[in-house]
Design brief:
By secondary structure, the chain is of the alpha/beta class. It is built from six helices and eight strands. One of its GO terms (molecular function) is oxidoreductase activity.
């Protein structure tokens, strides 16, 4: 399975490193092809740089740009018909407020932009720093909440989460991104607003 990551910020690079370490073939894509190619060259494994339109050739596409930039990035990528598109964004407004919600979500708005794609919400509750964690069997891995409307796409995303050593948590249909995204904002508030740092993640457990 080939994976394209649109966006070479902290999350994009972190996901590229971890997925490449898991043996996946990664295309890191951005508007400045030369810049992303240089970034890709510094990541161990099968990672190459590309323009955004070339990302559409991958089986799975991770949209790793800030939510305000999503529409332009997707316009460059094309219709993405039948592609699995993972939205990792948090719609952050002024003073760390929720810019989109609660009758819709960033993920649902992205699905409207590319209606032929299979959008899954995931990774928005995980800080980039956690993507560099070295985990062994006794360790408790970070939990990744995901939601989507397409069973095939959900299984693909669940498999990727497991491949990087994290724990998937299926949160149901894509409309439940309306609840997942506020959790992402809560993590930003805890980590940066309240000084807890970026080595924290939410976890749901049974008692």
């Amino acid at each position: 399975m080939s994976i394209a990551i649109i966006g070479a910020g902290a999350m994009g690079k972190g996901l590229a490193r971890r997925l490449a370490a898991a043996g996946e073939t990664i295309v890191l894509a951005g508007r400045d092809k030369d810049k992303v190619a240089a970034i890709a060259a510094d990541i161990p494994g099968d990672v190459t740089g590309a323009s955004i339109d070339q990302a559409a050739n991958a089986d799975v596409i991770i949209l790793a740009v800030p939510y305000p930039e999503a529409a332009n990035a997707l316009a460059e990528a094309g219709p993405l018909t039948g592609k699995v598109l993972i939205d990792i964004s948090n719609p952050v407004g002024p003073e760390l407020s929720l810019a989109v919600g609660m009758t819709t979500s960033a993920a649902e708005e992205i699905q409207k932009l590319v209606p032929q794609a299979r959008v899954v919400k995931a990774f928005n509750t995980v800080f980039a720093e956690l993507l560099d964690l070295k985990l062994s069997k006794p360790d408790t891995p970070p939990q990744v909440i995901f939601a989507g409307d397409h069973e095939f796409a959900n299984h693909r995303v669940e498999a990727l989460i497991k491949a990087i050593g994290f724990e998937p948590l299926d949160a149901g249909p894509l409309k439940n991104a309306r609840f997942i995204e506020p959790v992402g904002l809560m993590m930003i508030q805890l980590g940066h607003g309240l000084g807890r740092g970026s080595r924290i993640a939410p976890r749901f457990v049974e008692y």
